[in-house]
Amino acid sequence: MSGVNSYEIDMHTHTINSDGRNTPYEVIDIAAKSGIKILTFTDHSGITHSNDIVGYAKENGISIPFMGLEVSTIFEGNKYHVLGYGKNLRIDDLEDYLLYPTEVKNKRFIKIIEALRDIGIVLPSNEDIRKGIRPDGTFAHPDKWMLTRTLIATYVAQNLNISINEAKGIFSDSDDPKNRRIFIEESLPVHERYLPTTDVISYLAKKGAGVILAHPWWECGRGNTTERVKSDIFTFAELGLHGLECESYHLTQEMNNEIKDIFRQLPHFHRIGGSDFHGDRRSSFGQRGVTWEDYHAFSKVISI
Ligand SMILES: [Zn+2]
Ligand SMILES: [Zn+2]
What we know:
Layout: E1 9-10, H1 24-33, E2 38-39, H2 51-59, E3 67-75, E4 78-86, H3 92-98, H4 100-118, H5 126-131, H6 149-160, H7 164-171, H8 190-193, E5 195-196, H9 197-207, E6 210-213, H10 226-238, E7 243-244, H11 253-265, E8 270-271, H12 292-299
Helix pairs in contact: 6-7, 10-11
């Protein structure tokens, strides 16, 4: 660490391949300016990784030692985000299995795209939308597997010459309904749209990946309690969970005390995570991250 709250390792970041606002190259630029030396992309249910990306990072003094991803899961009604790390996570059954929540979302977005076409909006093909086709015909993110509200709204905004926020209102289920012109319901109840947390943790652990619970207290205040999270963490630890993202923007003093107690009871646990960088108001590089000591210890548990 080069100072108080100034981390050189960030293992939780997002790009336009999920709900981040920046390309992987832009994220690398921003991370480099913030003094980051080790970086991992953890897009939602998809892997952002290529020789080009790793090479570009290297030119900027950053090492990307692992592929990473973040999986949306559910355990007894409570949502948990699980982070997985490995030198190679591009194993077919792993990607197919972990992409399930994304596939469910994509199916709904394809219905939305079709309904937008029905009301006269001109859109590229579904495949081209996934890849983020630009007006000049090149692709913004060739590995795209996730359709997002913002992405679709970008096309609608272009079509109708309105702002992206106004465009979202046309097909959103949460924005101002007075602008809404189409509505597509969620296709499945929430517990069927997510993978079971316990299955995802044991699956990743068995494959040899490093498995971390992201921002454990994120669901608190939305139905979950610190007490429940804490007891769930002990269940997850038995299934192979390697540790927690201890620093997150959801933390309160009470939760900090719980974390201390968890680490007292599970001394083998690792403190891994990061800024959860999205290119928005969430925390920026350097504020939250991983110490070199924790990083080296965690690297040793990863065998994939
Ligand atoms: Zn998350
Ligand atoms: Zn995240």
